[in-house]
């Protein structure tokens, strides 16, 4: 059966609001898949390997302005701000994830914190002027979008 798009979106939001604390306990800051190069990396190392691989494929340059669509609890955004000195805006449909991302952000240096912003926003209804970002980062979110 086919669900109305708004009802489905609400269910996705509810899922992430409820499950994100548990996902974070299991996976840490990165609630996305990892990339095992040697095969013996920890899940945290594999997650960061995945980020590094995507940075290389996309040729993301230091100091870029990035929109992280489906930012989760902020792991990739924080990595990009910390390691490439990018200015990152992370958006998620989940208010719980925004709160968790801001808590993770608070653990970083002032310099990193100043380059991070997290907002509750529907990726299909962006509220940013055209050409605001150099890069749109989207990892494991496409299946939730039209």
What does this protein look like?
The protein has 146 residues and is α/β, with parallel strands linked by helices. It has helices at residues 5-27, 43-58, 75-84, 95-105, 110-114; strands at residues 65-69, 87-92, 116-120, 135-138. It has a 4-stranded parallel beta sheet. Helix 1 (5-27) runs parallel beside helix 4.
Provide the gyration radius in Å: 15 Å
C-alpha end-to-end distance? 17 Å
What is the ordering of alpha helices and beta strands? HHEHEHHEE
Q: Provide mean pLDDT, rounded.
A: 89
Helical/strand content category: alpha/beta
Q: Strand arrangement, largest sheet?
A: 3-2-1-4
- Into which percent range does the helicity of residues fall? 40-55%
Sketch the major β-sheet.
4 strands, parallel
Count of individual beta strands: 4
How much of the sequence is in beta strands? 5-15%
Name the overall outline: globular
Give unreliable regions as ranges. Answer: none
Q: Which characteristics define this entry?
A:
4 strands, alpha/beta, 146 residues, four-stranded parallel sheet
Give a quick rundown of the structure.
The chain has 146 residues and is α/β, with parallel strands linked by helices.
Indicate the topology.
Layout: H1 5-27, H2 43-58, E1 65-69, H3 75-84, E2 87-92, H4 95-105, H5 110-114, E3 116-120, E4 135-138
Parallel strand pairs: 1-2, 1-4, 2-3
Helix pairs in contact: 1-4
């Amino acid at each position: 059966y086919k669900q109305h798009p708004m009802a489905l979106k609400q269910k996705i939001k509810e899922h992430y609001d409820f499950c994100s604390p548990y996902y974070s306990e299991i996976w840490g800051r990165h609630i996305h898949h990892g990339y095992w190069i040697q095969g013996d990396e920890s899940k945290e190392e594999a997650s960061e390997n995945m980020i590094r691989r995507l940075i290389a494929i996309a040729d993301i340059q230091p100091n870029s302005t990035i929109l992280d669509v489906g930012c989760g609890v902020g792991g990739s955004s924080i990595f990009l701000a910390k390691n490439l000195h990018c200015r990152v805006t992370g958006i998620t449909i989940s208010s719980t994830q925004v709160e968790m991302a801001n808590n993770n952000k608070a653990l970083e240096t002032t310099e990193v914190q100043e380059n991070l912003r997290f907002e509750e926003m529907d990726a299909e209804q962006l509220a940013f002027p055209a050409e605001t970002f150099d890069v749109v980062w989207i990892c494991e979110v496409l299946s939730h979008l039209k």
